[in-house]
Amino acid sequence: MLQRFINKSLITRQSYGLLTKLRFNLNHRHFTSGTTGPRICIVGAGPAGFYAAQYILKTLQDCKVDVIEKLPVPFGLVRFGVAPDHPEVKNVINTFTKTAENSRFNFYGNVTLGRDVTLQQLRDNYHAVLLTYGADQDRELGLENETESNVLSARNFVAWYNGLPGAENLNPNLTGKSVTIVGQGNVAVDVARMLLSSIDDLKKTDITSYALETLVTSKVEQVYLVGRRGPLQVAFTIKELREMLKLPNVTTQWRAQDFEGVAEVVDKLARPRKRLTELMLKSLNEQSVAQPQNKKQFLPIFMRSPKQLKDNQLIFTVNKMQQDKAISTEKEESIPADLILRSIGYKSSCADNGICFDNQTGRVFNEHGRVLKSLNDTTVDKGLYVAGWLGTGPTGVILTTMNGAFGVAKTICDDVLAKNIKTDDQKLGLQDMLKSHAVVTWQGWKKIDEEESKRGLLVGKPREKIVKIEEMLKVAGV
Ligand code: FAD
Ligand code: NAP
User: Fold this and answer.
1) Does the beta carbon of 235 lie inside 6 Å of ligand 2?
2) Which ligand is nearest to the CA of 45?
3) Residues 378-398: pLDDT tens digits?
4) How far, in Å, from the CA of 397 to the mean position of ligand 1?
């Protein structure tokens, strides 16, 4: 009928384009829908969840996407990981908000998979379920007294300054002069920068007020950043290093012996690694020209693996490099450490027994985002998908997570369109089931957002985060 209409009408090229689009949409609708269209549930409102929702809503014009989120507030590590002094990174929230304002999107905040709903319930009520609940644990070093009070995980420290509910009572002891951070990734550098930045700079950010108060009284002067491998293998990136080097009133001090042979290979490196190494070498060379020493120092140290904790010292095994591998030697070195921050990566956990979780790799067992039935049965568990850090492991910036999530979202859409998963029966979603649960809707989140911005305005910050779940629920009107 549409074709007849197009043929009979005298139409311009522009309106023909519009009609073609309409015809595509109608075909699409016919192709993808039963009576109500596909219903898809996404677990976790971080970048992976939002980017996947964006793609699915755009591609499947008649689908509905429900996102359940453990916390009353959305955005995952964009809110609780990204450093307070990197507000530009948080601009992705504007894109996520646009997605959330789509009438076919629903947010169910304060709903935890494994506590409030089971995976089976989600599978019964949706045509497809996408797991994007991230990584909320941390890797451990395996040292004997790693649970001593002067050893904290960087994950908890980050959660503390960013106001993750439950982290507000961490009370890191910043009364000593030295902090040793184990690991040389961008999280380690974020933490070092937070410890060494000036209070005047931090107080204009959305750092929690209790963290700011503790940092005001901090006595920390030396921050060591210790890696088990060499300068050619650091995991931090150039932008983050540049920031450290420019930090006012902080001296970066490298150890020349760590760079033996590095200048000789720099030209052979691939471009990003080459530029990063050149920057380290430049900074090393400049430090030999007498430079004023600040009290506050950033001290990267290489080829040291933590071995033992002793009083306020961390004893390291001295390594030597063989290609990209660290080989331990008989030698040891101890580094002062009033506080030790373990920053060797995050770790995912299994939220529900129905998930095929691979403890070995710390990921949901999957092939290109399609979850597999079990470690022994590698056939696809139809209708169940995984994206983000939960599927890839805990590395990658937001852009990497976005690309991965788009890829998995495309797989879901392809499976729906090819009828690899059944979508012609009616699915009810969770609305009725969660009737008596304290759900925070998108409107509820908007109220929290407004209140936080209002409180921030009073103290010259972009927002003052609410950190208690009960208070969030109250403000959301739940
Ligand atoms: P997450 O962001 O962790 O989202 C997972 C969501 O699932 C969370 O909201 C969580 O509350 C929710 N959830 C957990 N369990 C459940 C459950 N059982 N039921 C329901 N919901 C659940 N990248 C950059 O590009 N720039 C940066 O400056 C930057 N800074 C970072 C700083 C830190 C400290 C860290 C750790 C990472 C940083 N990244 C940065 C990387 C970026 O944060 C990640 O790439 C991205 O957040 C991963 O997204 P995700 O959706 O997989 O996980
Ligand atoms: P990461 O980049 O994987 O770095 C982990 C560090 O820990 C590496 O230096 C690693 O060394 C070391 N490590 C691991 N196991 C160790 C052990 N047993 N003993 C000693 N050292 C060990 O992880 P991350 O810093 O947690 O960051 C996660 C992701 O978020 C990264 O992709 C990062 O870029 C991103 N992020 C980005 C930003 C930003 O853009 N500003 C900020 C924060 C985080 P080896 O290399 O030897 O394994």
Assistant:
1) yes
2) 1
3) 899 999 999 999 999 999 999
4) 10
